[in-house]
């Protein structure tokens, strides 16, 4: 933390103004660019991923974890030296057999660090010349059918607190296509049962919460869980652990994953299921129910890019498979 020891000058109108030399000295203090860059990220998960990727680059260059001085030395290279070094690093990533998406993510983290340093005046170049690896934009959006999800709902024993909690989580994952991080971060105060609204911290939206409408079955499930929980503090987590090891603690994303997977197994679902696969299933079922109305379904999925939903729809319809069959019938 920087301590401000400013000397003030009293102007004619009694305004206090810091002396210019003191401000210049403060501005010229060398920041820890790595630390400040990571601190600029909002999500703890995002911070962790950036640290991991940038650490990999400096381990390649120096054989050690990054230190502030090493970051400064890298950023003070001339543009040609820096680009040559990063190109060698990119080649190393490829030779290590990493997937194109991983290579691109690590390069993107490095570019982001350099862009930040450029923005704060600690670097005179960028890595715009470094190109990403080409990857095929395919996503496996397969999941389970609504009938199979009904089996999962039936497995939850709603005569127990655990069953009430798990049932409410399942309804949110399906009815609202929520991500497990969005479910984990919910607090009691985020829920308005009267208006059937839930305020969630959506992916990529910083600290800005957005409202989603709830179905009547989901409202009933949440109300049943809250009555069982007997908690009224709006700051307390909506979903808590019921394990003896950590009772009352906020349910983690890992715990939600384990709950979903265990329920799927109990329901006889052979496919390994995760909260995100339920989201895939929900979005695909919504496209099926609306005859592929991606604009309407975007309100559910909250994908910022409509092209992502088009991938879901293409996978649902299997256009390529249909064309292949048509061609086969011609010969």
TrEMBL record:
Residues 28-118 form the Core-binding (CB) domain. InterPro entries: CB, DNA_brk_join_enz, Integrase-like_cat_sf, Integrase_catalytic, Integrase_recombinase_N, Integrase_SAM-like_N, Tyrosine_recombinase_XerCD. GO terms for biological process: DNA integration; DNA recombination. GO terms for molecular function: DNA binding. Gene3D superfamilies: 1.10.150.130, Intergrase catalytic core. Residues 139-325 form the Tyr recombinase domain. Keywords: DNA integration, DNA recombination, DNA-binding, Plasmid. Belongs to the 'phage' integrase family. This is Tyrosine recombinase xerC. The lineage of its organism: Bacteria, Bacillati, Cyanobacteriota, Cyanophyceae, Gomontiellales.
């Amino acid at each position: 933390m920087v301590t401000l020891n400013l000397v003030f000058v009293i102007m004619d109108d009694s305004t206090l103004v810091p002396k210019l030399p003191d401000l210049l000295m403060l501005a010229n203090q060398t920041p820890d660019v790595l630390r400040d860059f990571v601190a600029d990220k909002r999500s703890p998960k995002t911070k962790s991923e950036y640290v991991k990727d940038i650490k990999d680059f400096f381990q390649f260059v120096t054989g050690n974890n990054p230190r502030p001085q090493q970051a400064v030395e890298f950023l003070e290279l001339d543009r040609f030296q820096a680009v040559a070094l990063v190109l060698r690093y990119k080649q190393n990533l490829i030779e290590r057999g990493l997937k194109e998406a991983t290579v691109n993510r690590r390069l993107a983290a490095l570019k982001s660090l350099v862009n930040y340093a450029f923005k704060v005046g600690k670097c005179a170049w960028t890595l715009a010349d470094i190109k990403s690896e080409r990857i095929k934009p395919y996503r496996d959006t397969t999941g389970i059918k609504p009938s199979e999800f009904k089996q999962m709902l039936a497995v939850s024993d709603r005569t127990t607190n655990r069953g009430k909690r798990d049932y409410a989580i399942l309804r949110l994952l399906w009815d609202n296509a929520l991500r497990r991080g969005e479910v984990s971060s919910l607090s009691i105060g985020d829920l308005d049962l009267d208006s059937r609204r839930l305020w969630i911290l959506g992916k990529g939206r910083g600290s800005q919460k957005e409202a989603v409408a709830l179905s009547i079955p989901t409202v009933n499930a949440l109300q049943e869980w809250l009555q069982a929980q007997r908690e009224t503090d709006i700051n307390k987590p909506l979903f808590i652990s019921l394990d003896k090891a950590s009772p009352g603690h906020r349910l983690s994303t890992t715990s939600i994953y384990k709950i979903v997977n265990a329920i799927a197994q109990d329901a006889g679902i052979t496919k390994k299921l995760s909260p995100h696969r339920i989201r895939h299933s929900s979005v695909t079922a919504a496209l099926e129910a609306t005859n592929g109305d991606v604009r309407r379904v975007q309100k559910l999925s909250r994908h910022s890019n409509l092209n992502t939903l088009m991938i879901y729809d293409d996978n649902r319809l299997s256009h390529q498979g249909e064309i292949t069959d048509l061609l086969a019938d011609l010969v």
